[in-house]
Amino acid sequence: MSISSLAQSIQNGKVSAFQHCTDTIRDLKERDSSYNCVTKVLETRALQTAKDLDARIARGDRVGLLAGVPFGVKDLFDLEGQVTTAGSVVLNNSPPATRDAEVVQRLCAAGAIPVASLNMDEFAYGFATENAHYGTTRNPHDPQRLAGGSSGGSAAAVAANLLPFTLGSDTNGSIRVPASLCGVWGLRPTQGLVPLAGVYPFASSLDVIGPFAQNVADIRSVSEVLIGQSLAYKGDVSALSVGILDGWFAQDLTSGVAAGMNAIQAACQHTQTITLPEVARARAASFVITAAEGGNLHLNRLKVEPMAYDPATRDRLMAGALLPSAAVIQAQRVRNWFREIMHEAFRKVDILVAPATVGPAPRLDQPTIMVGGKAVSARANLGLFTQPLSLAGMPVLSAPLSPRNDVDTPLPLGVQFIAAPGKENTLLAFAEMLEQKGLLGFPVVTARN
To answer: Fewer Cβ neighbours under 10 Å: the N or C end of the chain?
Structure first.
């Protein structure tokens, strides 16, 4: 059932919000042990909210477009009355949030019901959701594989059909990577379009928040609430010009990803290949900016209680705090230059297409990917194709490629669609066309009874 169909059934009284919320929470408790998506279940709040919603509907009150739809948030979104821990124990003694994050408030005003906070890499620093404090989130399509990160709990909860949509954050690919590996849809909106108030930062100049969902229609329904405007597209989608990114973005792909990219190109009427220059430098600049901002944010706390951090996170934050200013300044210059390169590309095309990851999710016992013929750390390199694009601040949609008979493994594979700033409606319309052609979309693991 789509999000809009579920909300309509609740609004019409055909489905009880309280019963649906009860079933969702029971499902989370019974099935999440296989995946480790959830850090906290908001049972008392959720059930009371659902009960109040049913009463309002019974009185004939108007309710929002997402009435009764349950959702979860990455563990760095403020939830009233809860301590925002950001995937760490370092913040355990912080005071509880006095209000929800602004985007959570928007969703609640539309009738959606928060039911859980979700696992992540500590302080969002990683691409694996291997958390020393809360455990590793497992991929619902194969629990012996990574879910990706840092929003792994958010992506996996949607892939396992535990929740119809969730919220995550994306600094260098933390929505797009887990969406790709878990076979769900994830949107990184235009930077600055969705408010970050009440969301614990990682690298503030790159941070963006966005939704995960099971299909493009659900992404649109949630995104319209988050952004506060319609994302309808009124043009001729088939007339859009499409640029297929090659060079850096055509290397190291598994056969399944390459075949999916070729199928998308064949399905579009107006395509050309586009080579972005100096992508390796852009990725390096993203690394430096992220490390410097993250390290600076945590520096004072690291001086006082360094041993409370996951050692891997601590070492990277300390290294970032020690970066010389000259390196950071140069990285910002590369960022500005690369942003202009991206803007130039959109003078030629409406949509850019690139792989989201090189292939399927790595195994937990072999957390590597092949790059340049060598096995390299998945945690550090799963963002190979997402990190450079983050610098431009443009909207990017991660979409799952549809399963193919000629692919060796039935695991999810993902693709990125990029548009000019503020063109989320174009992205969604284009992806919807490809979804209808059978090129995009991956089944969730199990359907709830």
So the answer is: C
